[in-house]
Amino acid sequence: MFVVLYACLITAPATCREERINVSIEAAAPTACLMSSQFTIAQWSEEHPQWQVGRWKCVPASRLSRDI
């Protein structure tokens, strides 16, 4: 399972990027991903203070390439 987040530069909001973070949760547990993703996103935000997360979602690895 992956957390896919969309973040934009705070100083240049038109500059955005997609990040994919492997959260090592089975695809059968999307609720677990949703619950743990808040910590994952907070940690990513601390490590990337120049970026602001606008939206995110949990995506099973099997759907990652066609879901994005």
Largest sheet: 3 strands, antiparallel
- Percent of residues in helices: 25-40%
Mean residue pLDDT:
86
SS strand fraction = 35-45%
What's the end-to-end separation, in Å?
A: 14 Å
Structural class by sheet pairing and helices: alpha+beta
Walk across the major sheet and give the strand order.
2-1-3
**Number of helix segments?**
2
User: Outline, from the CA principal axes?
Assistant: globular
Poorly predicted spans: none
Any idea what the radius of gyration is? 12 Å
The total of beta strands comes to 3
Instruction: Provide the succession of SSEs.
Output: EEHEH
Structure, explained:
The protein is built from two helices and three strands; from the N terminus they run E-E-H-E-H. It has 68 residues and is α+β, with helices and mostly antiparallel strands. The chain has a three-stranded antiparallel β-sheet with strand order 2-1-3. Strand 1 and strand 2 (16-22) form a beta hairpin. The longest helix has 18 residues, at 30-47. The chain is globular, with a radius of gyration of 12 Å.
